[in-house]
Inverse folding.
């Protein structure tokens, strides 16, 4: 029901040297800016976006080293023009962009939650959002910087204050939760991850992540004693990476892949392709009285959010997960909104 076509599309796997091996040429030229392009997520994300032939103009911005990343990536033999921008050139980087992806921010370290990142990353996202609202207010904003449950509302408040907010153009990238759910369930079911589709709703941290395992055709493979462990692994999968990297960072490569998947889907939808659905964190009517932003399968279109479908019937276990999600998610959202009010 919620098949994610993007997961079936190989971004660059097993590609020969010739640029002819990549996807068909873009229907309409698209300019994409990556803010935080020299970071742990930004570099592999920039590489993957350079491979996407729906991207014709790739702008890479960071406070340092972005020009070097751009020079490196620009040697890849795909058509996208790639330019690096230094700290003082932020507005120039944003001028005329169609999509702005923000992986900028500090990564998690062992023992840290996404909320521990809040104070530092809130300031970063606010300042980048101010520049985008001023220079490129109609761009589609894709927020990766954690904690997404709070940083997306921060961007919304900045755009509201600037008088340019369009909820159809603001997305929290939660695709990594979906790819993790797909991967972890496929390990149990012995299925192809590309054919193991699990919608993940709610938010993007801990108990706010609600995998709807009942919607996967492989759901019967999960025994009752495995269910809680699988859900916990999906909700806290990022901790595996933080621990394994032993203080050297958090999920960067998988996050870059997930962001590239979502960006690819959005670009196809902006170019008029029909039937594209992705789970993403947006302003939503689904649980508006409890959480004004909510991740769910969203139909994408030429203007961004095309439709927010009703959710399927939950199992008793999923209902409990949702009930645990909503109070925390509401607090996260309110935290972002309050912070902007106190730190304009």
């Amino acid at each position: 029901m919620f098949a994610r076509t993007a997961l079936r599309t190989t971004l660059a796997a097993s590609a020969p040297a010739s640029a002819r091996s990549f996807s068909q040429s873009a229907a309409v030229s698209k300019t994409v800016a990556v803010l935080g392009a020299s970071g742990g997520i930004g570099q592999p994300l920039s590489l993957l976006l350079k491979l996407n032939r729906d991207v014709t103009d790739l702008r890479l911005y960071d406070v340092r080293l972005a020009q070097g990343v751009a020079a490196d990536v620009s040697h890849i033999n795909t058509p996208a023009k790639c330019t690096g921008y230094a700290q003082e050139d932020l507005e120039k980087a944003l001028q005329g962009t169609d999509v702005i992806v923000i992986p900028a921010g500090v990564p998690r370290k062992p023992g840290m939650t996404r909320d521990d990142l809040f104070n530092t990353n809130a300031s970063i996202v606010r300042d980048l959002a101010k520049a985008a609202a001023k220079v490129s207010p109609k761009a589609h904003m894709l927020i990766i910087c954690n904690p997404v449950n709070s940083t997306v509302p921060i961007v919304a408040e900045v755009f509201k204050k600037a008088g340019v907010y369009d909820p159809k153009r603001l997305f929290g990238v939660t695709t990594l939760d979906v790819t993790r759910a797909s991967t972890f369930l496929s390990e149990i079911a012995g299925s192809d991850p590309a054919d193991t589709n699990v919608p993940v709703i709610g938010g993007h941290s801990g108990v706010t992540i609600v995998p709807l395992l009942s919607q996967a055709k492989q759901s019967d493979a999960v025994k009752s004693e495995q269910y809680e462990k699988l859900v916990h692994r999906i909700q806290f999968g990022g901790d595996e990476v933080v621990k394994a990297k032993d203080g050297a960072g958090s999920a960067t490569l998988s996050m870059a892949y997930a962001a590239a998947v979502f960006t690819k889907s959005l670009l196809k939808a902006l170019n008029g392709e029909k039937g594209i659905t992705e789970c993403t964190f947006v302003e939503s009517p689904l649980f508006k009285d409890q959480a004004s932003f909510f991740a769910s399968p969203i139909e994408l279109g030429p203007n961004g959010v095309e439709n927010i479908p009703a959710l399927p019937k939950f199992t008793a276990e999923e209902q409990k997960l949702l009930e645990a999600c909503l109070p925390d998610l509401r607090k996260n959202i309110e935290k972002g909104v309050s912070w902007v009010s106190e730190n304009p």
